Amino acid sequence: MTLKLGVHWFRQDLRLAHNPSLEILAGRVDQIIPIYIFDPKQPIGSTSKWWLEQSLNCLSNDIEKRNGKLNIFEGDPLDIISSLISDKTIECFYWNRLYDSYSIIRDKKIKSSLKSNNINCKTFNGYLLNEPWEIKNKSGSFFKVFTPYWRHCNDIIRNKKFDKKTIKIKLFNSIIKNSKNIQKLKLTNKKLNWTNKIQNSWSPGESNAQLQLEEFIKNKANNYSIGRDRPDQNLTSKLSPYLHFGEISPMFIYSQVSLSKKINSQNKEKFLAEIGWRDFSYNLLYHYPDMTKNPIQNKFNKFPWLKDNKNLKKWQKGLTGVPIVDAGMRQLYETGWMHNRVRMIVGSFLTKNLLLHWKLGEEWFFDTLVDADIGSNSAGWQWISGCGADASPYFRIFNPILQGQKFDPKGEYVKKYVPELKNVTYKFIHNPWEMPEENQKNSSCKIGKDYPNPIVDLKETRNRALSAFKTIS
Ligand SMILES: Cc1cc2nc3c(=O)[nH]c(=O)nc-3n(C[C@H](O)[C@H](O)[C@H](O)COP(=O)(O)OP(=O)(O)OC[C@H]3O[C@@H](n4cnc5c(N)ncnc54)[C@H](O)[C@@H]3O)c2cc1C
To answer: Could you report the per-residue pLDDT of 18-74, keeping only the tens digit for each?
Structure first.
């Protein structure tokens, strides 16, 4: 008797549990061939490559524990899949959907090629709480503002059934011709010690994602609504890279947090709304497919951005002379992650005080974040620079001194990442250039020598940004 074989194509769903495509396929075929294709045309940042390598190792080990074999390929997915299905025993080909325009166009072609070869091809939602096309306002259009979007989504999600039990999956355990070893993908360069530091900060993989969620629910979630704005306190979930690579399901997170008796309703609502922001970003990306390149508001095509490579480099390296900005940029470079409040502060500084194009920030984040995500990153940058779907740029010129004093009151976050300032008293920690000579001496920090003067005047550049906005309003 011939076995009925199906392929599950892993993409940004590097997990075995709560994986809709895998679970439904398991009910339809005798054995599943798990495959991953590294598509060189799909954009991926340097830090994400490190995470991907680790994550594929974890997935491959988890599959081996279940007597299966993850087959890894590199190249054009259409060619690879066409060659795979030339083996006539494959009957079904399933995957979980992606929502960026490159993937949508590519996947449509693959789906139609599979169908014309009489292969049962089905796709599922394993990445979001709701499909972007499902959520419509009263006039039948999509939402451009988060609050009404989320109110509407929440009603839908509450009525969705989420089945938490894991399904038994029978996996195919042979190596397929042309499949590769993970190391052969050459995702990381062992000589670069940049990722060594990042390695100390993270443990990728599905089981670590589960632990991260458990730890968050047990020890942090009940302080989330206040703590989420404090970079000096470790009170956010740090689930973003796990969510990006699909090592954990957003529906599973939603259901675990909603059902938890350890978290009060205020904290639950706040946290679930942040998961909602992730969906909202994909709602925008789906409806504005070129928002990774172009501003949602067309008038920003005429915005008088400056060109200043020197200032850009100083921002990237955390040498702007503005402590909270430098701490954030160094946290990013050292750990591959930055606290959300600080992402907004450094984003406002780049696009408003330095008047540099938001794409420059978006590209640097995309290359250096472990959670670099085409939807959340471009939505975040468009939001902070004021060219996104819901605009109020005048309110978003953050004052980095006041932000620092409010959200890092003792300067502990700054001191952790900017050790030059470790002896500076909290009175001057966010504005060290105002320290009298005596204090500079006592804190062994001569401004202009041990730590730079601010590269721009904050007040002047705020006014310059406001005038620039007037030119396009
Ligand atoms: C300029 C800018 C760029 C950003 N780039 C990215 C990015 O590339 N990838 C990314 O995942 N997030 C991005 N964010 C959103 C946010 O900063 C991170 O998701 C968050 O800091 C991750 O930390 P956490 O997991 O501890 O978050 P938590 O506070 O624990 O939130 C839980 C989850 O909700 C989601 N989330 C939270 N805030 C947001 C938000 N504002 N937008 C979208 N999703 C959110 C994330 O998936 C996060 O893991 C960006 C924000 C800004 C302002």
So the answer is: 999 999 999 999 999 999 999 999 999 999 999 999 999 999 999 999 999 999 999
* Full set of structural domains in the chain with CATH: 5-127 (3.40.50.620), 128-161+205-287 (1.25.40.80), 298-472 (1.10.579.10)
- 238 phi-psi bin (left φ>0, alpha ψ -120 to 50, beta other): left
Rounded Cα gap, residues 245 and 48, in angstroms: 9
pTM of the shown model: 0.97
Residue closest by Cα to atom 30 of ligand 1: 237
Distance CA 424, CA 231 (A): 19
With a Cβ cut-off of 6 Å, ligand 1 is lined by 228, 236-240, 243-244, 274-275, 277-278, 281, 340, 343-344, 347, 365, 369, 371-373, 376-377, 380-381, 384
Q: Provide the residue count of the chain.
A: 473
Convert the pLDDT of each residue in 139-155 to its tens digit: 999 999 999 999 999 88
- The radius of gyration of the chain's CA atoms, rounded to the nearest angstrom, is 24
Q: Which atom of ligand 1 is nearest to the CA of 216?
A: 30
- DSSP-derived secondary structure letter, 400: H
